[in-house]
Design brief:
- The protein is mainly alpha-helical and 99 residues long.
- Helix content is 75%, strand content 0%.
- The protein is built from five helices and no strands.
- The longest helix is centred in the middle third of the chain and has 22 residues.
- The chain starts with 5 loop residues before the first helix and ends in an 8-residue tail after the last helix.
């Protein structure tokens, strides 16, 4: 494995471990946290960001730029999902309970 791919692989591993630990404490939280993958608006924004970043960074960093671009695209999609999701859906259920 290329040494430049270790950083994005480590960040992805940390996100997966964090998701797993929170899921153990609060069942169902992983589905809520990663539901942006099934929505078109966040995925369109994330894919656009990933394509633009990978196109610009490919010459400078090669395959590492692609890995960072995919990670950045996923984070952009997550942020877009948070900004377009109603507050009640983000923070808890119908009774206002925080998870």
């Amino acid at each position: 494995m290329d040494a430049s791919l270790m950083a994005p692989a480590t960040v992805v591993a940390m996100l997966v471990i964090r998701t797993a630990l929170v899921e153990i404490r609060h069942p169902g939280s992983a589905r809520r946290q990663w539901c942006f993958l099934a929505r078109s608006r966040p995925m369109t924004a994330g894919a656009t960001a990933a394509v633009l970043l990978s196109a610009g960074g490919w010459r400078a960093a090669g395959i590492a730029a692609l890995a960072w671009a995919v990670l950045a695209g996923a984070l952009v999609a997550h942020i877009v999902h948070l900004s377009t999701t109603p507050e009640a859906e983000r923070t808890g259920d119908q009774n206002g309970e925080r998870h």
